[in-house]
Design a protein that fits this description.
This protein is of the alpha+beta class. It has seven helices and ten strands. It has one domain: Phosphatase 2c, domain 1, CATH 3.60.40.10. The strands form two sheets. A five-stranded antiparallel β-sheet has the order 1-10-9-6-7. A five-stranded antiparallel β-sheet has the order 2-3-4-5-8. The chain is globular and about 50 Å long.
Length: 242
């Protein structure tokens, strides 16, 4: 039985919230459950349009998909979302250049299936914290190539430049991950408004100190805001073996 909680917060600096979260603990289409975090980008209202449009599109595709394989379902759903957003951006000058990150997950017993585009993340937190997704960002690519260290990456001036997003170009390539979960694991999905404000170890400490997932999520958001709250902050927490 899954126990879940989600929260999204505008942060301290932004005028609108361009993040969008979705949680569904019950079966949807051929999936037993569905969780999504999207972080939109683009001027005016383009970013919040992109994140909501992506989530709505993915949910609709999942609901009516004939596919059985979660990865195929995710791949098609993200592809359809990409096409719709890209088409809308080319038709409307106010929405030009918009896009969004997405991280999508479904729990199948002990296994977690994940897809992501951009730099919104999924972690598994227990006694340690493990980042499952890999950021599609310029700085992350520099780290992977050995150009800069992990510590330097945290404060790099180009940190916000992402190399893949839904809706920006005609095609999109998600990454896919399968994770075997253990007793005591908590899954954290979040936008970079959390991870740019808090180190991974700070996230783990906050989560280990709070009583339940509601308090864990609320304290993560409060800590990100205390550290500056420079962006919208979105958090989904799931206890798979509650």
């Amino acid at each position: 039985m899954l126990k879940t909680f989600s929260i999204t917060d505008i942060g301290r600096k932004r005028k609108i919230n361009q993040d969008f979260v979705y949680t569904q603990e019950q079966p949807i289409g051929n999936l037993p459950n569905l969780f999504i975090v999207a972080d939109g980008m683009g001027g005016h209202n383009a970013g919040d349009y992109a994140s909501k449009a992506a989530v709505d599109s993915i949910v609709q595709e999942v609901r009516y998909s004939f596919e059985k394989n979660p990865m195929r379902i995710f791949e098609k759903a993200i592809g359809v979302a990409n096409n719709r957003i890209h088409k809308k951006a080319t038709e409307n000058v106010e929405l030009e250049g918009m896009g969004t990150t997405v991280v999508v997950a479904t729990f199948l017993g002990r296994y977690l299936q994940v897809a992501n585009v951009g730099d919104s993340r999924l972690y598994v937190v227990n006694k340690a914290i493990r980042q499952i997704t890999k950021d599609h960002s310029l700085v992350e690519e520099m780290v992977r190539m050995g150009g800069i260290g992990r510590e330097e990456a945290r404060n790099h001036p180009d940190k916000n430049i992402i190399t893949r997003a839904v809706g920006v170009s005609e095609t999109v390539e998600p990454d896919f991950f399968t994770v075997e979960l253990e007793e005591g694991d908590i899954v954290l999905m979040c936008s970079d408004g959390l991870t740019n404000m808090l180190e991974d170890e700070e996230i783990r400490m906050i989560m280990s100190g709070a009583r339940d997932i509601v308090e864990k999520a609320q304290e993560l958001v409060e800590a990100a805001n205390r550290n500056g709250g420079r962006d919208n902050i979105s958090v989904i927490l799931v206890e798979p073996f509650a």
